[in-house]
Amino acid sequence: MNQTKPVKVLQVVGAMNRAGTETMLMNVYRGIDKNKIQFDFVSYSKEESHYDDEIKSYGGKIIKLSNTWSIKEMVGKINMHGPYDAVHSHTLFNCGIANTAAQIAGVKIRIAHAHTTNDSSDSLIRKIYLKCMRKMILHSSTHLLACSKGAGHYLFGEKGVQNENYSYFPNAIDYSPFLQQDNNSEARKFKMQCGFGNNLVIGHIGRFIKAKNHLFLLRIMQCLLEKDPSVKLLLVGEGEEKKRIINEVKKVGLEKNVVFAGIRTDIPVMLQCMDAFVFPSIYEGLGLVLLEAQASGMPCIVSEAIQPEADLELGLISKQSLDEHPRIWANRIMEVVGKKEKDFLKITRAFEEKNYAVSVSIAKLMSLYSATSGGTDENYTDRLI
Q: Residue limits of the Glycosyltransferase subfamily 4-like N-terminal domain (predicted)?
């Protein structure tokens, strides 16, 4: 490999909006030496995404696809904007399309990365699709990464996670902004603007999609109001389900108690506004925002769908079943309020021990991206048949 040129990597994503996978990638991208490694991004979205301008400021390209199922178009984009040393796909089962195209284009390193434990359908057609795409992923990828054990099993199957090229990859997070004392003063300003006063604030950060279970969160809120009529719910994020949730808030008369903050760049401040973080997801690959919440010392009440890798073992994670009545959740929330972790050294040590630091992720990815081979395609394919 010519060492005078930076290693060139193509990241394949749905769109670079503010979500867990995308934030993890930006944490890495901000931290790498751009003289040694450079990222371009394939986006499946025709719209501008939240991180696009920042990516361009670092010299990265945003490459749009008109047909996300076209291997031919993907090969063309790789050849047009390459050559690439590695293609790193983050698009669930569609990773098979991207990595097959990369294989045809002669890209040596082809990574499929698992970020979730489920999706929205279990129809027969969907099951057939998953089986075919999983086989495609295993045959075209030189490396398989997963943010949690559950995510790895879901995307790669039992055979995939037993492969020698499969490995657990902790999500990269720059936790230092969440430890800053400045967040407290900014949080007070925001709470004043929202009219929170000294009221109890329960929070959630995440896209408005069915998997995040906002409707259940509203049921919990109704139960909390029986205990404290002044409690507030702070919702940060955007998404396809937001309009539905807004209508539900109006329907049940919670307009004075629920604040929709939209997409925010000051997540550390948003977390400091909260007294407890509630995360009743139906499924999650990991839940990067839970790492951010723990970095802020925030007590978190989460569903059993949350992967064990997300728990930093700081005593901040409390799991509840979604089968339990929302009142049980409300009771548990009231129990943990006021029990923030204020020992920042302890928090820092937990992140380092769990290998969630950005520096660790960058070192591992640099090793993968810079590899000259992952075994021949023929031998790798033979191992998977």
A: 20-174
Cis peptide before 83 (omega within 30 of 0): yes
For 263, phi and psi rounded to 5 degrees? -85, 130
> What does the radius of gyration of the chain's CA atoms come to, in whole angstroms?
22
Domains of the chain: residue spans and CATH: 7-172+357-384 (3.40.50.2000), 176-349 (3.40.50.2000)
The token duo for 257 is 């108690």
Q: What is the mean pLDDT of residues 126-137?
A: 89
Whether the Cβ atoms of residue 131 and residue 96 lie closer than 8 Å to each other: no
**Lookup: tokens for 281:** 């997801």
Report which residue type is found at 362.
Answer: I
Q: In this structure, what token pair is assigned to residue 188?
A: 């007070």
Residues whose CB falls within 8 Å of the CB of residue 189, separated by 6 or more in sequence, listed in order: none
- Rounded CA gap, 372 and 118, in Å? 33
> Which one-letter amino acid corresponds to residue 373?
S
pLDDT for the residue 182: 64
pLDDT digits (tens, 9 = 90+) for 159-186: 899 989 999 998 878 888 888 766 788 8
- What angle, 0 to 180 degrees and rounded to 10, lies between the N-to-C axes of helices 20-31 and 288-295? 70
Q: Is 198 exposed, middle or buried (0-12, 13-18, 19+ CB in 10 A)?
A: exposed
Q: What is the pLDDT of residues 316-361, one digit of tens each?
A: 999 999 999 999 999 999 999 989 998 989 999 998 888 888 888 8
Count the neighbouring beta carbons within 10 Å of the beta carbon of residue 138. Answer: 25
Answer for the pair 8, 38: CB distance below 8 angstroms, yes or no: yes
